[in-house]
Amino acid sequence: MTETLEQNSPSTEDRAPRNTTRPNQKPQSRPTITKVLSLNTIHAQRVARRVSRKMSQACYTVQVHLPNIAGRHEELAPSLGEFSKLLIEPLEEFDKAINDEIERFEKLKSDNAIAENVDYSDPEQLQLGITSPGMMMFSTLLLKLDSLVSIIDTLWMSGVFDPNQRSKANYEWQQRLLKVSNRVIALGGTTNKKLNDVTASAPENELEGKDPAAESMPDPTEEEDEDEPEQPQKEVA
C-alpha cells in the first residue's frame, strides 16, 4: 500500500535570512513545479525524510534569494558564480557516479540472465514543490538512488550478492547522497550568513528569503529511532 510521507511545519533550523518584508507587502509570486516521487526502497525514503526540506531551502537560498539580493548589493556579485558552482558540482559528480553504478549492475543482471525485478511492501510517495534547479536535480538523484537499491536487492534475491554485499552497497549509496546533501545544506547556511550580514542595514528589503515549498516537506526532527539505517556487517577474515 502506498503511503504519503508526513508533512510537517518548518523547524527553526530551516529559517532563511532575516525577513524584513514590510507588513503590508504582498508576497511575490514564484515559479514552482509540483513533483510526486514514488520511492520504493527504505534507503531512498530515509534520505527524502532527512534532507528534502533543508535541501529545498538551501537550493532556494543559493539559486533564488542570493541572485535577487545581489541585484541590489554589488558586493555580492562575486559570490554568485562561486556559490552556484559549489552547489551544482557535488550533485553532478554524484549523478555521474550513480549512473555508472546503475549501468554496471544492470550489466551484471544481464550477464546472469536475471529478468525479474523485486517489488516492495511499503512504497511511499513524496510531493515536492520544486523552486530551484538544484532541487530538481536532487529529486532526480532520489529516484536514481531508489532504482540502484532496487537493482542491488534484485541481485541479492537472485543469489548474485550475499547479504553483506547487499547491505554494504545499499548503505554506502544512501550515505553518499546524504553527504552530498549535507554539503549543499552547509552552503545554504553560509549563504544565509552572508546575506544577513549584507542586508543587516537594509530594513526596506523587499525580497523574501523563505522557500515557499519547504514547509510542505518532511521534518527530519520527526525521524524515529527504528528508522536508522542498517550498518553493514564487517567481513570475517
Please give the largest β-sheet. Answer: 3 strands, mixed
Distance between the ends: 41 Å
Question: Rounded to an integer, what's the Rg over CA atoms?
Answer: 20 Å
**Order of strands across the biggest sheet?**
1-3-2
How helix-rich are the residues, as a percent range? Answer: 40-55%
Order of helices and strands: EEHHEHH
Question: What is the number of helical segments per DSSP (H or I, 4+ residues)?
Answer: 4
Structural class: mainly alpha
Q: Output mean pLDDT.
A: 82
- Tell me the number of strands: 3
- Sequence stretches where pLDDT stays below 50 over 5 or more residues: 1-22, 203-207
- Strand residue content: 5-15%
Shape: elongated
Describe this structure in words.
The chain has helices at 42-70, 77-111, 133-157, 163-199, and strands at residues 3-4, 33-39, 124-130. The protein is mainly alpha-helical and 237 residues long. It has a domain at 37-199. A three-stranded mixed sheet has the order 1-3-2, with helices on one face. The protein is elongated, with a radius of gyration of 20 Å. Residues 1-22 and 203-207 have low confidence and may be disordered.
